Amino acid sequence: MSQQDMIDVVDDSIINSPNTSKTKQVKVWDILVRITHWTVAAGIIANLLFTEDGSDLHVYVGYTVVGLVVVRLLWGLVGTRYARFTNFFPTPARLKHHLSALNVRQVDEQHLGHNPLAAIMMLSLWAVIIGLGVTGYLMETDIFSRIQLLGNKDVLEEIHELLANSLYLLVPLHIVAAIAMSYWQRQNLIKSMITGKKTVTDKPSDVK
Q: How far apart are CA 4 and CA 15, in angstroms?
């Protein structure tokens, strides 16, 4: 056997070795998840920065965002694999596994959907948005008038404003975390929410 033949054999053994990592594209985010994600993001930015509080446009955008969140919550019950709450709800076991993966700077392929930390963020954002919708609605009803008669006319407005102001913290934190995690785990999370695909080395097996 010539020297070149020996090199070819070694190369073949490396390529075909079971320890060799091969990457592939996996479809994670379905079209409904992606549409609701970016539309909700656009609506939040619009109401925080561009629409006038109390205006018809502000109310319309707000209710639209709440409606989209409700759709997403329902999709979390009956939707595709990675959209379901059963896939990403942040249990202690999932959180522990994810932190271990972060410690060694690995892509957590057992949580290809929302990882536990991202799940906490998403659940927080959804809760705030629902709260904004509820308080915004109550401010337009007779309930708000009764509260005014009791001398606490600002209570709903203050709660609504507090929830809205919390988005000034949560939204930038979400963006920074997505960018940081993309760098740390060498996985473009923002791009994946556009294309719906992530790059993996092995078939994921979610932690229960």
A: 16
Residue pLDDT, tens place only, 118-137: 999 999 999 999 999 999 99
Q: What is the 3-state secondary structure (H, E, C) of 9-58?
A: HHHHHHHCCCCCCCCEEEECCCHHHHHHHHHHHHHHHHHHHCCCCCCHHH
CA angle centred on 109, ends 73 and 115, rounded to 5°: 35
75 with 34: CB under 8 angstroms? no
Domain count, the chain: 1
Q: What's the CATH code of the domain at 133?
A: 1.20.950.20
Residue pointed to by tokens 């993966």: 101
Three-state secondary structure call for residue 126: helix
Beta 24-27 vs 197-200: how paired, if at all?
A: antiparallel
Tokens at residue 139, please?
């401010």
Q: What range does the domain containing 38 cover?
A: 28-198
Indicate the pTM of the whole model.
0.81
User: If pLDDT is split at 50, 70 and 90, which confidence band does 20 have?
Assistant: very low
Q: Which two tokens stand for residue 183?
A: 């760098």
Sign of the alpha-carbon torsion through 98, 101, 103, 107:
negative
Q: What is the DSSP string of 79-107?
A: S-GGGSHHHH---HHHHHHHHHHHHTT--
Rounded Cα gap, residues 82 and 88, in angstroms: 7
Strands of 78-191, DSSP E: none
